[in-house]
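URGENT: need a sanity check before tomorrow's submission.

F., can you look over the Simple sugar transport system substrate-binding protein record below? I want to be sure the sequence and structure line up before it goes out.
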Amino acid sequence: MKSLPRLALSAAIPLFFTQAAMAGGVSGAPAPFDKGGVKIALISYISAGDFFQAYQAGAEAQAKALDIDLRVFPGRQDAAEQREQILQAINLGVSGIVIDHGLPESLGDVVEQALDKGIKVVAFDVNLNNPKIPQVEQSDHELADLALKQVVKDNGSSFKAGYVYVAGFAPLDRRNEVWETFKSQNTGVVEKASFGNVSDTTATSTADQAKAALIANPDITVVFAPYDEFARGVKLAANDLGIGSKLKIYSADVSTADIQEIIEPGSPWVATVATNPAVVGAVSIRAAALQVAGQDVPHQITVKPTLLTQEGLRTAGVKTIEELAQKVPAFSTSDAVTATWIPDKLF
Ligand code: SR1
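Structure tokens as predicted:
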């Protein structure tokens, strides 16, 4: 199968942990996990969309397996509310806080307050620039690099491009660094339009912008849209304009809904580079738990992404994320930040 590692097929099992927490703590775990009920907060900036829902589901599954009392604060793309939620979590007496995305400039002082109270903090995709805070990411430079290598493989190195980007989000900023380098090294690649929107309606708002950009620049043949909601928006626009057959979309992220959109007949969405967001959510909780248990956690924690092409998915007959996890072990689990006492098998 193209672009998916040739790996042994294992039996598909629905999302659950193979080693459940004992009622009242985890057998063999260090304190306080031996007793259970450790309070940890998951504070997101964005909750809408497949990526963030799957990330939260993975965090909840890992928390359950560790008998953690996980308090989930919904993200509404509201920096003031996220600050307020961190203060609420401190008042709740949590032992750890996982911060999932956000704007660093609005978080620094409240995160300091948490650290001062001895609360362990983990950051996913938000640069809090503090040596006490482990940073989780999906190896965004590698992710963008894999996508752009596929772009060149399919289109050569001279084409007119559209690019979807919103500055200020750590993963998008890291992917943007790779795009900028790529353009400087491939002068035949001309960025004709750049647009994007991150909101609770990212896909539809991006679709409106993409439509305008594609009408104004009918010579665009490639769109680099490194977030699945961006890719959905561009695909919507291409379908509305009836230009799907002359456009190729390259993205990041994957979900069952994304796979369906990629493999459908005539889809312009030809490749994505992704981790399993549920695995990333689980890794984030493990990083918090290890710190609460007084154990070492690396400062930089990465979950490596995999290139998934339309051709490869179709050839392999993969239609869901569970089927993907059968073929790509990285979609089942990650060996990042684990310990013998932590149940970490996701599928
Ligand atoms: C608005 S930032 C969106 C990205 O965050 C996560 O890293 C996902 O990969 C998504 O692409």
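My own read: The chain has two domains: 9-138+276-304, 140-274. The radius of gyration is 20 Å. If you see anything odd, call me.
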